[in-house]
Amino acid sequence: MTTTPTVTRQHTVIDSPYGALTLVATDGVLSGLYMTGQRHRPPEETFGAPDLRPFGEAARQLNAYFAGELTEFDLPLRLEGTPFQRGVWAELVRIPYGETRSYGELAGRLGKPGASRAVGLANGKNPIGIIVPCHRVIGASGSLTGYGGGLDRKQQLLAFERGAEGEAPVLF
Amino acid sequence: MTTTPTVTRQHTVIDSPYGALTLVATDGVLSGLYMTGQRHRPPEETFGAPDLRPFGEAARQLNAYFAGELTEFDLPLRLEGTPFQRGVWAELVRIPYGETRSYGELAGRLGKPGASRAVGLANGKNPIGIIVPCHRVIGASGSLTGYGGGLDRKQQLLAFERGAEGEAPVLF
DNA sequence: GGGCGGCTGGCGGAAATCCGACATCGACCT
DNA sequence: AGGTCGATGTCGGATTTCCGCCAGCCGCCC
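Structure tokens for the assembled complex are given below, as produced in the milestone run.
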């Protein structure tokens, strides 16, 4: 017979300036962070049993981030996807706090200059929002273009990271 | 949404000179007759609830057949299969009691002279044994070649139909 | 008679291929 | 600026193609 995977999965919900955040752990390691109403959010029944124990450190760092006291997460993550998706997500975490990159820029960095749309696709499938900062990717012309959690949240996140001293956010 | 078929299915088991026979009805019409240990016999759980009511006439004719008093069944049948299979099965019921045809002969009658092996395949999938007389098909050389219920049963059926006055059955 | 080899056609599952959907980009137009 | 158009890469599901199986047949050989 085929070997059954037998992964344990737990989840919890925390509050944030961007609404409730659902945290998911697979085998005790953070594997998902989803906003309410987010596109491509997996069905609820895949989140496992409620259990806040695995999420102590993650919640601490998120709260520090929302307070403006943390600019770089340091957490074990479990990112499961196709080789290309994993490449894109690995590139995302290298974008510094407060900065942005364009889809085409990331594609070029991956050695596939024409794959900008594919980067957008993989971006949308990012399972761990905020911590894997897909919100830092915008169009080459500077337009926000899209965000699984909604363009307004993307704009708020960027404005927040740009800092209170930043000029008014570029709206669309 | 897709329309659900919602077919009713019932079954019963009767005894015979060839062992227990499982009769299956779909929407009240005979759709299956399987021997014990027969190849391609569907799994038990598809036979529906036990209920002998739909099978009165079928059982009567079968008993008459086993007693040698009936040579032609007259029953509504529900034969479900591919167009080719239905063609083969339709050809089967036209083989008279006590006679035999070869696989190639049937193939030719269907307008596909080369399809003798395909006829054998369709023959093996015959859902209503005995009544749809797949046992009356033998190799061009006269050999029995195969039977879902076992070659011995095929040989017994042919010997029985040939009649007590017939000469000794050709063994293999 | 029996045993091979090569041809046959249909079937069903597996593999390969196709196609639509996209969080893009650049050139061109008005 | 905004809109349209074509080219681009990946993904997932659907579709198509392929391949092995088989209740055969014929010709050839021993």
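The radius of gyration of chain A is 16 Å. Chains A and B do not touch (no CB pair under 8 Å). Further analysis is deferred to the final report.
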